[in-house]
Amino acid sequence: xxxxxxxxxxxxxxxxxxxxxxxxxxxxxxxxxxxxxxxxxxxxxxxxxxxxxxxxxxxxxxxxxxxxxxxxxxxxxxxxxxxxxxxxxxxxxxxxxxxxxxxxxxxxxxxxxxxxxxxxxxxxxxxxxxxxxxxxxxxxxxxxxxxxxxxxxxxxxxxxxxxxxxxxxxxxxxxxxxxxxxxxxxxxxxxxxxxxxxxxxxxxxxxxxxxxxxxxxxxxxxxxxxxxxxxxxxxxxxxxxxxxxxxxxxxxxxxxxxxxxxxxxxxxxxxxxxxxxxxxxxxxxxxxxxxxxxxxxxxxxxxxxxxxxxx
Length: 311
Ligand SMILES: [Ca+2]
Description:
Layout: H1 5-22, E1 29-31, E2 66-71, E3 78-81, E4 89-93, E5 100-105, H2 110-122, E6 148-152, E7 155-156, E8 163-170, E9 180-190, E10 196-207, E11 217-223, E12 234-241, E13 247-257, H3 260-273
Antiparallel strand pairs: 1-11, 2-3, 2-6, 4-5, 5-13, 6-12, 7-12, 8-11, 8-13, 9-10, 9-12
């Protein structure tokens, strides 16, 4: 059966909800452009927006609380750049009541992006320059290779809490490719030498399936960063756009705590969705004999195909 494009998009969206539920991360997902909240779902929240400057109104040369984290080729760690490159990332004034927002351009040669990042690391005041026009099929652009990211500062999270993240996006329409708002969770763990280090322990994303260019779409989703990764103590929001190469806009990033009653309902719905765990029978371990350092458990004999006699 051939589905009309609109139906296919709706079907993909509901499929994504089921997958995310199964993964045990998000359970309520909505986008004003495509899908509504499922029946019975509520969108209540507690308190203030936990994302500082989520509307991108405050700041001097760069929105306060947001930064570029550039993975340099010669370094394993990310290099923080508290500036907009004005090549792929711009602080855009909408000239409306919406105020300022972030504009991304992924239609930029990836090598030019690397050059610009190295410039900014050496001198955050390095003046911007215009991009070189790209040529089809544009697989060598930022949109076709590394994408464009913009990170928030760390946001503390409380163990056991469920949160709702939401954002407004304008972007390129596509079934398979769409902008994403990543939530990355970090916590302290011990490395091989026993030192406590901050590591990324959790990641999920809000799929921003925009309907078409030039129109703001609102998306929201709940998540529980410490449910399966209790060591997570803080998260960062990462706005990310890639294919199709072109312009993307972001505004009104909001993260709020979900009230406990609703969070409990979300957990109950998730438990109902997950199939019961089946315990596979374990073989009875053979007793260790005196003098043996370890016991090799005997596997079930493999059935090998019979060797045909040579002709
Ligand atoms: Ca704004």
